Amino acid sequence: MKTISKFIGLALVATPMLFSCQSKQPELTKSGLDPQKFNAEINGKQTALYTLKNANGMEVCITNLGGRIVSIMAPDREGNLRDVVLGFDNVQSYANLDGKTPSDFGACIGRFANRIDGGKFTLDGKEYQLTQNDGANCLHGGPTGWQYQVYDAEQIDSATLKVSIVSPDGDNGFPGTVNASCTYSLTDENAIVMIYEATTDAPTVINMTNHSYFNLSGDPTQTVLNDTLCIVSTQMTPTNDALIPTGEIAAIEPGSVFDFLTVHKTVGQEIEADDINLKMAGGYDHNWIIAPQPQAEDLPLHAILYNPQSGIVLAVKSDQPGIQCYTGNFLDGSAVGKKGIKYQKRTGICLETQRYPDSPNKPEWPSTTLRPEEPYQTITVFEFHTDSEKLDK
User: Is the pLDDT of residue 2 over 90?
Assistant: First the structure.
């Protein structure tokens, strides 16, 4: 793919950014993280914190536990850097070692992002039973999905990190041994480019995404309800009470609760509306189908999120056919994040580019099947702007 090849080459030379675990007084990241708190042995492998920087002073911190984005320091309209994602200040909190705070914050999700109905699917005439971890469903690859595994990490240069994982045959019930990776690149245009790649030795299914919770105010004590959201979509996939798509492709009526295209509205404007889909999910937790963009010269635009307080704008672009918008409905204050802040309901919003949920059970939808002769390769970009810039919508 030309687009992917183009972005693979976007690597910038800057100051080395992996701080030694041997330093007695480690230099903190711009977001205030202590890299030593990410040095641990989990599942027999070493974890660490990696830092990417660009020429504008923007900083992205990533841990190889789950391939997680830990912090993103993005400039606001005054040029001040703000940490715009939720997360933890130590690797143990991400690892869920106490079994009390399961976490998908910032993770590189696999094998299969989102839900699979009943934890079952049939491929080439054979039924597979997956581990169930969301009621009867399999969510985000199961209870020991890739977000809890230690990826191998290669800091290619100061702006590029590649994390790789080998998922064995039978991992949470999925067939085939899969070799997967995500390459993160931070460009001088203040964009985080994520290139997902995977191969398998036997037919399987795959659906990778990033699960960052954004709070563009930089203050996670505030909700995201006053953020303005645009989703480039005229269709969505309604769900049942288990949040599994019914199989219907529903048109989004202009002005309806799921219309974020013709009406540029805030996240919270209709989140409490008397709508059965909203009530079952406790807010937005749905898949929008991205509208065709035949005139687009770049990757298709999926969504634009804007915080009027900070002036920070996030544009999400991808070659994937759908995007899951999740408004942090299940956050309840039990997760204590960076700077000791308890993450309350709707203090973060996820914009997960993806194939549609439960696609393995809906053969008429875009395929999630991965075969040995057909390597998996997708790209998603998080572009950061401010309202003082001209953003082509």
Answer: no
